[in-house]
Specification:
The protein is mainly alpha-helical. The chain contains 6 helices and 2 strands, in the order ααββαααα.
Amino acid sequence: MSKKSNEHVLPPAAEAARYLENARQILTEKAGKKDGLYADVKYVKMAAGTAYSAALLILDEYLKQKEGINFTKPKSIEDYTNRLRKHDKKLLRLLVNVYDELHIVGYYHGTRSVEIIQTGLANVTQMLTYI
């Protein structure tokens, strides 16, 4: 890694917030909205994937804080849920909702529903308060 790239490393909360802002920007500038639906599914999928990545960054940092030197990066959604179950049930519920809203419905299925995507973004924003 070059010296220049090291200078731009953000703290995990700031990096997750940046991802979330990027997702919102994609939706605002590219997805187009009419009658409660997004016009371009391609950009909804892109934004949903970006916001879900923010959620994973948050969870990784949260688990690092809780598990300390025993932390290893989770390898699956089941690993995340099993480990969160030991620490915080509310954060676990947020993860389950974000997984459904952004990862499955938003990214994989490509929903056009503004309501579902906005709910997912709001849940990731709540997750940010944990780190």
